[in-house]
Amino acid sequence: MTETNAEATQPVEGEEERELTPQERLDQLDEEAEIAADFVEGMLDLLSLPGDIEIVVREEQALVNINEVGSGLLIGRRGATLDALQELVRCATQRKTERRSHVRVDVEGYRERQLEKLREKCRDAIAEVREHGEPVRLEPMDPYERKMMHDVVAKAGGVTSTSEGNEPRRRVVIHPAED
Amino acid sequence: MMAVDVLEFIARNLVDHPDDIEITETEDDDGEVVLELKVHPEDMGKVIGKRGRTAKAIRTMVKAASTRDGQQATVEIVE
Question: What number does CATH give the domain A113-176?
């Protein structure tokens, strides 16, 4: 299994590993997204915030996106509140499903825009590796973001990528491809 | 207070003994609101998390909620 795939499907420690069928995996992600959306809805109610909750399940990932909130409250400085909300959503989801959850929470596409910025930095780093022939380390990212960076590197050609360090400081390293 | 409701909501969703949740509102020396969260001993790990990750997330979320109250609330998790 390559690093890229391994990051998307870290098994829970001690949990029996069994290959799930794509449909079983999809059902799990649907279940996680539903629980996560309920949690987010409860939170919006308590904060008297409006918001349309959109659930997206694709590419091995459940996403709950909150639209039309009309407030930066749930994002916070540098996304700190959004990270906190996502962490709590994952904890709540894990308690109910007894599986590790990687469900993502976004507010009005904030994370998607951040991801695009990371992809741009990744492309700059790839250019640097090609030019100097030396590895370049990207900033620490969460497993999903790292997977996206591995994808950018894989599509670029002439470079390869690995990950190093421990969570939450784990980062992608881009290397020149060996001839 | 929204911050109290948010704290209770979060705690209820994380613990196995929701009936044992106690939240006490106090003030520190600077007059800031401190919310003391008490949970069942078996649930301590659930509200603290690995390396305090969950506790940190609870504090950040409750702090954000308290700005809706026009205040600045902090959370203390007590045994």
Answer: 3.30.1370.50
> What gap in Å lies between CA A93 and CA A65, rounded to an integer?
16
Q: Does residue A91 sit at the B interface (CB-CB below 8 Å)?
A: yes
Give the whole-angstrom CA distance, residue A25 versus residue A34.
Answer: 14
Distance in angstroms (rounded) separating the CA atoms of residues A139 and A73:
26
Which tens digit of pLDDT belongs to each residue from A138-170?
A: 999 998 899 999 999 999 989 999 999 998 899
pLDDT at A20 over 90: no
Q: How many CA atoms lie within 13 A of A164 on its CB side?
A: 9
Low-confidence ranges of chain B (pLDDT < 70): none
Average pLDDT score over residue span A126-135: 96
How far does the CA of residue B19 sit from the closest CA of chain A (Å)? 16
Specify the amino acid at residue A43: M
pTM above 0.90, yes or no: no
pLDDT tens digits for range A24-35: 999 999 999 999
Domains and CATH numbers, chain B: 3-78 (3.30.300.20)
Q: Which residues of A touch B10 (CB under 8 A)?
A: 88, 92
Q: For helices A143-156 and A110-132, give the axis angle rounded to 10 degrees.
A: 40
**Burial level of B10, CB count in 10 A (0-12/13-18/19+)?**
buried
B78 interface with A at CB cutoff 8 Å:
no
The CATH architecture one would assign to domain A16-108 is 2-Layer Sandwich (3.30)
- Give just the sign of the alpha carbon dihedral A64, A65, A67, A72: positive
Say what the pLDDT of residue A2 is.
43
